[in-house]
Every structure is written in structure tokens, then in C-alpha cells.
Amino acid sequence: MKHFLTRCSLIICLLLTLAVPVQAAQSYSHLYIAISDALMNTKQDNEAEAKQALEQFATDWAKVTSEQKEAKAKVDEILLQATEAASKDERLEALSALSNALRNLEKLENPVDEAAQRAEFGQKFKPIMADFEKALASGDIQKIDEAYKDFNIKWNKSERPVREQSIAMYGQIETQMAFLRITISSEEPDISLIQSQFADLKQTINDFVAGKETAEVVEGEFSLATLIAYIDEANDFIDAEDYKAASEKIREFITVWPSIEIEISTRNGSLYTKIESDMPIIASDLLKSSVDKEDITKKLENFRTEIELIQGDSDYTIWDAALILLREGLEALLIILALVSFLDKSGQKKMRKWIYVGAFVGVLLSAVAAILMSTILNSATIDTNRELMEGYVGLLAAAMMIGVGIWLHSKSSVASWNRYISKQIGSAISSGSVFAMAAISFLSVFREGAETLVFYAGIAPKMETSQFMLGIVVALLILAIFALVLFKASGKIPIYKFFAVATVLIYVLAFKIIGVSLHTLQLRDSVPTTIVDGLPVVSLIGFYPTVETMLGQAVLLLLVVATIIYKKKQ
């Protein structure tokens, strides 16, 4: 297993060395996502996550160059205000201003004739509204329903200029359309109410085309927790069979939805589409004479769980970062200690310096590989696919961790450990080769360094930079203490017991990384999401109630059991 990992490590280093970042066209979409994350977490009083999102924005923003010096300086100024905000309200205000400043910079860099955009939108929508009015005049609810669906499809394709120019008008149109959908889908549709609702919708669209700001932004601080709360309240009313009150709660959900939808659309496009299309139908179905309580409750619970999955998008902790370096560092340290001890017992003390030379070169090349990996991970070419990369690299890290865990398990006895070291150093001692001795030490250190890089690539993007660095510092301090103790008490410490404990810790971390990585891919629709009802989200250990994440973690557990059985048979 170690020979396999050595080859993997060398291949990874070679690929990192050959990789050359390619510049891509400048895009600010990832910056808006960072602002959205900061807003959401600030509203939910998640201080660490909000700061992490701001740090991500600052990191990405530092790479931006622009000829619009004044507008860019304004973003710099407001970013500083957001970073140094002393209260929740100050940060929310600064984040809102930051979004506006960034949008202003984008407009200056890509000037758009907004009046021409509105006129073009109006020309496109005039025949669409005429078609709906024609269906409405027929009084045939089936034709009206078909006309609405066509209207909705064309709105989704054309809504961008409205959303970009006026979030208030966009929100009002979205809400009016949803309420219109509720009326059309009701058991006995009221044609006069449909006519009235469409007249209001048409007026809002015409006002936008004319450049009139007649809508008001829905007041309040809304977040994913707000949506979950509305669903919970609706379910409580459904349990009490107060379906009218439940329908009102869904209407309130729809009213605040435009203020929050970006937090879902940027993470899970399919969920965004399902909520937009299904929530008005649910509100309508709750008002019918015969309510399918079980079906509606199931739909709402699924929506709740999927929103909670986004809200519970897991972060790693300082101890996750420390554990990786601690485990890899201790293994390299123990191997070097064992090599030195074998040399001493074999009367080859003169060759000890080559063990240290090999270790030093291993550390040096690991640092070079770390810089290269950092450059690639932060290159502009991957901004749009960062979450996909995080998911796939996380799965690679988990796979390597499983391999490391199996190897550790195989060395968790005195005989196995002694056989391993004897095999590693035997040929080098017999030949007296300086190169062979240094190579053993180098590969022992560099292999652990390369593995550490892959593991960190799987977790670093989901950690606050300060927490990540603190975890590394803690691990280094512990390693320094261990080094002193080990070199003074070598021969007295049962090294194999360390491997038994480390095996358990590695498997636990692999369990978490598998869950978080698959969850990340689910949010990007790269992996299906099949909700398992009744199970909670436990982001601390990377557990998400979906069939796909549970299957991935079940495979790990099966491998662990198989390894234990195999070792016992030996």
C-alpha cells in the first residue's frame, strides 16, 4: 500500500510542477456569491462563517485589476468597512453597499444602455402578455393555464434585465406571478380575480419598461432560516388541519422568496426551479375541498430538508486541519526515528546525517508542491467550477485516507512494524549506499507531505483561513513536543499503538470528507439528491440525510470491517 501511495504522491507532484495556470476572462459572479454567503451568515449570526465569506471575497478581489480606478477604490473602501464592522447591522449595511459598489464597477467596465434594455424587454413581452390576455378573454381555464405556463417559461428566459436593474420590481413581478398561479390552480378558479391579478402584473411590467420604480423592497432580514420557519409553521397548521392558515404561510414564503432566492439558485439550481414551480401549487392545493395532506406534507418536508442541506453546508474545524498534519507528521517522524535507531544498533552512526538530509529535502519539496497547489487552486480558470473541484478533490483525499488507514491498520502490531522498518532499511545498510539511505528518508517525508497536500486540498476551501492556519500551528507545536519526547525516550514508546489510534482518527475524518464532498457535488447537481425522511443533518461529522452520501459512507464502513476481518485472519 505504501509503495502505491509513494507512486501516487510522485505523480501528483509531477502534475503540479507541470501545471500552468491559464488566465480566463474576468468574471465577478464568484464575488457576488461570496457577498451572498456573508449576508446569509451575518443574518443567521454565524460570525465565523460570515468572516470566512468576507475573507474569500478579499482573496478573490485581490486578483482583480481594473482601469476604473475610482470605482475599484470604492469597493476597496467598503470592503474594509465590512471587514471591520463592529456590529451585525453595520456589516449588513456595508455588505449591501459592497454589492452596489461592485455592480457599479461592473456597469462601468461593461456599459449598458438600460433604457434600450427596458425597451427591448418591453418589445419581447408585449406579444406574450397579449397571448395571455387572449386566453383570459376566452374564459377557458385550461387555455389560461397553458398560456400562464408559456408566460412563465418566457419570463424565466427574459427576466435578467429586470433583476439587474431593479430587485424591487423583479421581486414584485415574481410575487404577482406566483399569486396568479395560485388562483389559476385553485379548485374553482375565479376568472375575475385572475383578470385583476394579471392587470396588476401587467402594470408592474409596463412601469419597469417606462423606467418607473413603483415597487418597494420587502422590508426585513430574511435568510434560509426564514424559509425553513415558514415551512415549519405551514406544517404545524396542516397537522392541525387548518389548511387556510397553512396556505397563508406558503404565501408569506412566496412573498419573501425573491429576497432570498439567490442563496439557493447559486448553490442548487434544481431546488430553485422546484420551489418556484411547486410552492404556488401547494398554496392552491391547500385551499381545495379535498386536501392530500400526506402528499403536501412530504413535499414541504423535502423542501425543508434540501434547504437545510444548503444551510448546513459543512465547514471543517481547526482540529480537522491539525489532525491531518499531526498524523502525517508523526508517521514521518516515527519512520525517521526508527531509521536512526536501526543505524545506531547496526554500527552505522556515520550515515545518520543522510537520514536528516533526505528529510530536509522532503520537507523542502513538499513546501514547493504546496505553493504550486495553492496557485492552481486559486487560479482564475477554476473560479466558475470551484465547488465541483472541491467535491472531486475531497473524494480523492478520502480515497487516499482510506488507503492510509488500511496501511496503518496493517502496522498496528509490533511484528508488522518491525518487519516494515527492517525491509525499508535492510538493503540500504547492506550496500552502505548514501543515496539509498537519503532516499528512504526523503520518500518517507515527501510521501507524507504529498498526502497532506491532497488531504488539505479537500478541506481548505471550506475553512476559514485563520482556523486553517491555527490548526497547522497547533499540529506543528504538538509535533515539536513529540519529537523531543521520542528522541529522548526512543525504544520505550510502543510505536505500533500510535498506529492503532491514528487508524481510527483517519477513518473518522475520511467519513466526514466523503459526506461533505458528495454533498458539495449534490449542490451543483453533479450527483443526484435522494432525501431520506426523518434523519437530521449532522454537519459536524459530515452526515447528510441523502441516499447518495450515506451510500458513500457505507462503502467506507464496509472497507473498515473487511480490513479488520482480513487482519484477524492473518
Give the helix/strand layout.
Layout: H1 2-18, H2 29-43, H3 47-61, H4 69-84, H5 88-109, H6 114-138, H7 141-158, H8 160-165, H9 167-184, H10 191-209, H11 224-239, H12 243-265, H13 269-285, H14 293-311, H15 318-345, H16 352-377, H17 386-410, H18 414-431, H19 434-459, H20 465-488, H21 495-523, H22 547-569
Helix pairs in contact: 1-19, 2-3, 2-5, 4-5, 6-7, 6-10, 9-10, 9-12, 9-13, 11-12, 11-14, 12-13, 13-14, 15-16, 15-18, 15-19, 15-20, 15-21, 16-19, 17-19, 17-21, 17-22, 18-19, 21-22
How does this structure look, described?
The protein is an all-alpha fold and 570 residues long. The protein has three domains: 83 residues; 190 residues, no CATH class; 252 residues, no CATH class. Helix content is 78%, strand content 0%. α6 runs antiparallel to α7, α9 packs across α13 and α12 packs antiparallel against α13. The longest helix is centred in the last third of the chain and has 29 residues.
**Major sheet summary line:** none
The structural class is mainly alpha
Q: Tally the beta strands.
A: 0
User: Unreliable stretches, pLDDT < 50, 5 or more residues?
Assistant: 1-25, 378-384
Task: Using the CA coordinates, give the radius of gyration.
Answer: 30 Å
User: How would you spell out the order of helices and strands?
Assistant: HHHHHHHHHHHHHHHHHHHHHH
The helix content is over 70%
Q: Please, how many domains?
A: 3
The overall pLDDT, averaged over residues, is 75
Percentage beta strand: under 5%
Q: Give the CA-based shape.
A: elongated
What's the tally of helices?
22
Distance between the termini: 17 Å
